[in-house]
Specification:
- By secondary structure, the chain is an alpha+beta fold.
- It has helices spanning 112-117, 134-138, 140-145, 148-162, 168-182, 188-195, 199-210, 214-231, 238-244, 249-260, 264-279; strands spanning 37-40, 50-58, 64-66, 72-77, 82-86, 93-95, 101-108, 128-130.
- It has two domains: 19-165, no CATH class; 168-279, Arc Repressor Mutant, subunit A (Orthogonal Bundle).
- It is 43% helix and 15% strand.
- The strands form two sheets. A six-stranded antiparallel β-sheet has the order 1-2-7-4-5-8. Strands 3-6 form a two-stranded antiparallel sheet.
- Helix 5 (168-182) crosses helix 7, helix 5 crosses helix 8 and helix 8 packs across helix 10 (249-260).
Length: 281
């Protein structure tokens, strides 16, 4: 079982309590617009469990909003040497900006961290904990001193060494969780029937894989669709709401506030402001 130092950590996240304090990923953290941010694809054998490896250096110094995406991260702050596991997020975090960041990380697909690291995901929702497993700590000296791309390869070596121990049950759990995130507009009962399991079984397996229920992953999946459309220039209007899978514009607005802390219109303005800052010389 993974060695997570979670005792005494609050369930409600704060910048001091969670490991995202080192992350200056802004509202477009998955795009290439941030020149200090790079993603690296995992080996084919890991692609069902690992979304990517990522590295980030520098920072604008501006505050940033990190949104839920259904994933979990194992993050190394190369400035401080701190290694933290960040669990599934169900609400956004607004972080103070820094200019001196140097990070590399693994972003796990839903269920990937449970399968590869044995993390008790239910204990890690909306929080982070120092990672103290010996084999992971041994890579700090290599990954901390290497170039970011080489550091990501050190992370991959750790995961590939564990791949043979991943059980078929854990792979199935990860697949079920991925279906919930990727099919957010399919009712949970209908999705369970399509996948050949009962609704109760789907709920148990997805919770074991991610620490959250299928309905929560579906909410995050709809949010991802909506934010992607708004980031691409779509207006935050009723048409966008319906395309993303919301009942109406009011439903989208309520979900945005619950998951991101802002309205869809405010989110669109944050993106515009972020792009304007990047355009400055």
């Amino acid at each position: 079982m993974a060695q997570l130092e979670t005792a005494g950590r609050p369930r409600t996240p704060s910048k001091d309590a969670v490991g995202h304090e080192a992350m200056e990923m802004d509202v477009e953290r998955r795009t290439s617009g941030n020149l200090g941010y790079r993603e690296h694809a995992p080996a084919p054998a890991l692609q069902g469990l690992v979304d990517c490896y990522w590295s980030f250096s520098g920072g604008s110094g501006a505050a940033s909003r990190v949104l839920p995406d259904g994933c979990a991260d194992l993050l190394l702050d190369r400035t401080t040497g701190a290694l933290r596991f960040v669990g599934t997020m169900t609400r956004a975090l607004v972080l103070a900006g820094r200019r001196d960041q140097d990070l590399i990380a693994i972003r796990f697909r839903p269920g990937g961290a449970r399968a590869l690291l044995g993390v008790p995901m239910g204990a890690c929702v909306d929080i982070a904990a120092p990672w103290s497993e010996r084999s992971a700590l041994e890579l700090l000296g290599r990954a901390g001193d290497a170039a970011p791309e080489e550091g990501c390869r050190e992370f991959e070596a750790l995961l590939l060494a564990r791949l043979a121990a991943v059980s078929p049950k854990d792979r199935r759990r990860a697949d079920l969780a991925g279906q919930c995130l990727g099919r957010p507009n399919t009712p949970v009962g209908a999705l369970a029937e399509r996948l050949g399991v009962s609704r109760q079984h789907l709920g148990r397996e997805v919770y074991e894989a991610t620490g959250v229920r299928p309905k929560t992953l579906a909410r995050i999946g709809r949010l991802q669709r909506a934010t992607s459309m708004i980031a691409s220039g779509r207006r935050a209007d009723a048409a966008t709401a319906l395309t993303a899978g919301y009942c109406d514009q009011s439903h989208m607005a309520n979900e945005f506030r619950a998951l991101t802390g802002v309205s869809p219109g405010s989110y669109a303005r944050e993106i515009a402001s972020s792009r304007a800052r990047r355009a400055l010389p």
